[in-house]
Amino acid sequence: MRVLKAWLAVLAERGVTSGALLRPVDRHGGIGGATKSAGRGSRQRLSGQTINLIVKNAAALAGLDRPETYTAHGLRAGGATSAAKAGAPMSAITTHGRWADGSPVVAGYIRQADKWNDNPMRGVGL
Fold first, then answer.
1. For residues 18-29, average pLDDT
2. Average pLDDT, whole number, for the chain?
3. Cα dist from 48 to 51, 70, 107, 125, whole Å
4. What is d(CA 60, CA 68) in angstroms, rounded to the nearest whole number?
5. What is the pTM of this model?
6. Residues 53, 90, 99: CA angle, nearest 5 degrees
7. CA-to-CA distance for 2 and 66, rounded, in angstroms?
């Protein structure tokens, strides 16, 4: 939270108070979408490809096995899965993940981590 609050303060200092949180920053400290834009053009958000590269880089720096397999999409699915396993209501997961209210898509993001223990038929006497 400290890092997020600090980043939001930097954005506010540059006149950015709405829009994308993850923005390009050029080598001179220019932030995309601010009064002086970062890089060429006025891109206001990082691309999905750039975010995936950041995730893979972070996985490599953390020493995780096969860092090339980590993706931003995997982080989204992992967050939804962890929240569901912790008992969070689907409506809260949907809101937090910014899926549309009542969207069935969120269910596809919730992974079965342990197919034996997560089996709904486990313990049913058949």
1. 88
2. 84
3. 5, 13, 22, 47
4. 8
5. 0.62
6. 45
7. 30
Which phi and psi angles does 47 have, rounded to 5°?
Answer: -75, 160
CA dist., res. 51 & res. 24, Å (int):
10
Q: Point out which residues pair with 60 in neighbouring strands.
A: none
For residue 119 the two structure tokens come to 């089996």
Instruction: Please give the Cα distance from 97 to 106 (Å, whole number).
Output: 8
- The two three-digit tokens of residue 62, written as one number: 């953390």
Residue reference for tokens 């108070």: 17
Structure tokens at 100: 């549309």
In this predicted structure, what is the pLDDT of residue 116?
Answer: 61
pLDDT digits (tens, 9 = 90+) for 24-75: 988 888 888 886 555 555 678 898 899 999 999 999 999 999 999 999 888 8
